[in-house]
What does this fold into?
Amino acid sequence: MIRVENLIAQRGDFTLGPINLDLGDSSYLTILGPSGSGKTLFLESCMGLLPPKEGQVWLAGEEVTRIAPEHRLTSYLPQDLALFPHLSVRENILFGAKRRQLDSVQVETRLNELLNLLDLREIIHRKDVTTLSGGEKQRVALARALLPQPRLLFLDEPFSALDAKIKRQLQVKLREINQQLGVTILHVTHDQEEAFMLGEQIAVMIHGQLQQIGARDDIYYHPATIDVARFLHNQNIFDMTVEEVLADGSLLLGNDIQLKAPGIVGVEKGQRLAAGIRSEEVMVIRPNKPIGPELRDNLFQATVDDILVFGGTQTLCVKLNGSNISVDVELPNCAMRDLGYAIGDELQVSLRKRSLWAIPMSCEHST
Amino acid sequence: MLDRDTLFKLVMFLPLVLLSGYFLLLLGSQSTFFNAKTFIDQLSQADIRSAISLSLIAATCSSGIAICIAIPSAYVLARMDFPGKRLVDTFIDLPMVLTPIALGTLILTSWNTTIGQLLSGLGLTLPFTLSGVILAQFTVVVAISVRMLKSTFEQIDPRQEQVARLLGCSAFSSFRLITLPLARRGILAAIILTWARAVGEFGATVMVAGTAKGQTATLPSSIYMAMSMADLPRAVTLVVILIGISLLVLFGVRLVLERKI
It folds into this structure.
């Protein structure tokens, strides 16, 4: 549906790109990145609101780089929704259909479909959009964007101002829209939970670059760069060196510990790597509990250094014995209650080989 | 003994009371020279009626032209970036800080240049003409319009125009269908204040167009002429008319700003 080739855009001192992206029909891509990473600038360039400095944008096989936004048949839902306050709810929703002079019978059918899908029947006759609640405004803005049957819907942090409950309801609604209406969606957000819940594919944008594009698990468990790993809250990142390349992986050495890591393409003996494991993937092993070979590979004796409590989960900060490495272990409250650990307790942790990721230092964007 | 809060309120109130008293004194003192009979007598004189109609016509024309030029200019300054923007933005404010007499002098001297002579040759002469009055008033008031409208456009979220563009509007349609309706109140307030400032304009008008009775004498210049000839009843009548117009304008602005229109 949308293809972006070597797109470079500039605003002030900030340069975005070069960006390459190819998104198929009816798919849902979330672009995840911190504030100021260039997400909105990227959307503006794709929508035609800001001409790119270089590169091309293709929509449904047609090159649209220099085509005005109104001729691209796309829709846009910005962060502040930008409902038109001088128009009623109905006029807002019908705005795009009227401007595009769509067939009135088709518009009416589509309108009814959207009124049902977005539960808008009760508020469609309201005159003043400024008096709607946050969730209602969101649904009206979504209906306005969807009514003209856009080829592609651009969403720019659309749920950032909503409370958690309404946000969740609308996220579910958005997934239904993508699946039922087959609308291709390009959604930018800084909210990781939202990106992972909605995106079939996720692209991570940091410092104006798309650093990784992939499926949820690829992004979550196998970050391609240190920036991505840090942005996705990987707490356990270790500086290691390849000691030996094995048939089924690599043997890494660093900070007085040895780790067996999965195979890394093109890695050589002596090469420096950043290796890591998500805190919820670290296994805590009770003493004397029989364990399989998978857990035995990277099994360490450790001491509890600190315990941090976060709502429903707790983080055990443990120090590996005989090393200066600290490892965070995230456990649900119920597991922590069962285990009953306190600061100073001895325990065993396993940094499971299949949960480890490793990035050659040459692939880093910054360290 | 007054407590500190009461003392604070008194200190803050005192200047307001003095100011209100001063304005009441200014207005009240007119009653010494003003009565209904004199007012009607003065109004029956052709040159006073001419001054009133000339003031209203010239102010309407000059403020109309100013608003037509200020709307696109203010939009460009509020929304677009271009080289030298800061310089242009500052330059446009010049008429607001220059005394109207100096502005009048600038207009007159510019009419002695080649371009000015060319415009004169095309029939746009300034001394003792309505065109001169309108040009003088326009020069004084256009900066006020631009400044007010720029602030109005800056308060409108550009995302609304962007969303409209993606919903099928051209740049002009999104300006017409979204920006202008949202700027309605600001534009109305700018029209009223620009018009009021034009009605009261004196310095530049006198410099450029003079004060020929029945030709270029506006309300303010007629007041000046009446006072210079010590014709107090005439001057006070004209002042009362100006006060009436000003109060109407101020009331109009209030209605607009308090969203009653």
